[in-house]
Amino acid sequence: MMQRRDARRRQPRPPRTVRRAGRFGPPARRLREWTTAKARRFGLPITFVLAGFLGGLGYAVFAPTTYTATAFVLVVDAGKGQSGPAAVSFAQAFGRLAPLPETLAYSSLPLPDGESGSSRAHIQASTSPDTPLIKLAGSGRTARDAAAYANAAADALVRYGTSHRSDTGVRVALMTLAEPPAAPSSPNLPLGVAVGTASGVLLAGLAAAVLSGRSGRAGRRERGRVPSAAGTAAVPGQVPTGRVEVGS
Q1: Is Ion transport set as a keyword in this record (predicted)?
Q2: What is the pTM of this model?
């Protein structure tokens, strides 16, 4: 008896990790299988959403900073000094001419240093169909450049309208000059992240719809391959008629 007890004591015990594996093995395996199934089903949509979020965040962080400043000019009748249908019509025309280099040549204010022919890309004019007001928005890498573009366009438009006053019968007056903005207009971190995430959600929805359609077609094909019970019961041979034949 003593020898048996000594032999049992001498036998090495299984490691604690082995005992724990026997206890927690099935739940861990089920959890791993569940995680794998969910990853196969939702992995691609989640990837699209994450990619859209990171893309929007990257654009908001690394995109060049742009400032925007705004100046306003008003078109009025030369004789009456009021706005009428003619003033509104000429405001529409002057708004289209404002960003052109030929119109900007009338400005007495210097444009910021930049590439030749790039001033039109930094000046945008917008008008209203009801009022003869022209909004001139200048954009630049710095706040001073943005204000300089807007003010140069406004000054050029006033001088251009004055030089053609006898022909048009309207007068272009300066309302407000642009001030250097305190904060950049783009990039906008919340807006960039929201747009990127929305794009990712849209792509994820399209991917989920495509995958769902494929899985549905695959399921219908699999069900079509299963033989019916009536088909398996059919046995080749003579069809029984219910009559018993007696041998002669």
Answers
A1: no
A2: 0.59
